[in-house]
Amino acid sequence: MTSDQIRLVQESWAKVVPIADTAADLFYNKLFEDAPQLRSLFLDIADQKKKLVMLDVAVAGLSDVGSLIPVVESLGQRHARYGVKEADYGTIADALLWTRSATRGMMSSRPPKPPSTRSSPAPWSTRASKLPRKKN
């Protein structure tokens, strides 16, 4: 990611934080709608919604990926122990990007641009595009 992309992601994430509860509700509703089999991995959804703020660590760490990698690897190992499969990360990324789009109007007085009118991919999708996607 370029330094401009990192800045855009961090600025955008800062706008999500005040609406974190709503964003978490939208995210988990979308995730379970798209992948109901993942619901069984989340025993305490209220507690899990609080953990979604772990994204703060990842977003803040984009400026120093070297220190972020061990944190993300550890998180990935924990998720593997919980039963998350590699293929699930694409579905999770899709739900996260959908949530970002769905909350855009809550974070700004400007209406969001439809995806078809954007001149380049959103920085949020730069890393997510490298994740495996669910097969339709």
Explained architecture:
The chain is an all-alpha fold and 136 residues long. 63% of the residues lie in helices and 0% in strands. Mean pLDDT is 79; it is low at 114-121. The chain is built from 7 helices and no strands. 10% of the residues are buried. The chain is globular. The chain has a single domain (3-107, 119-128), classed as Globin-like (Orthogonal Bundle).
Task: Provide a concise account of the structure shown.
The chain is mainly α and 136 residues long.
Can you tell me the residue ranges where pLDDT is under 50 for at least 5 consecutive residues?
114-121
Number of domains: 1
CATH architecture classification:
Orthogonal Bundle
Biggest β-sheet description:
none
What is the multimeric organization of the chains shown? single chain
Report the CATH superfamily. Globins
Q: Which features would summarize this protein structure in a list?
A:
mainly alpha, 136 residues, 0% strand, single chain, globular, 7 helices, Globin-like
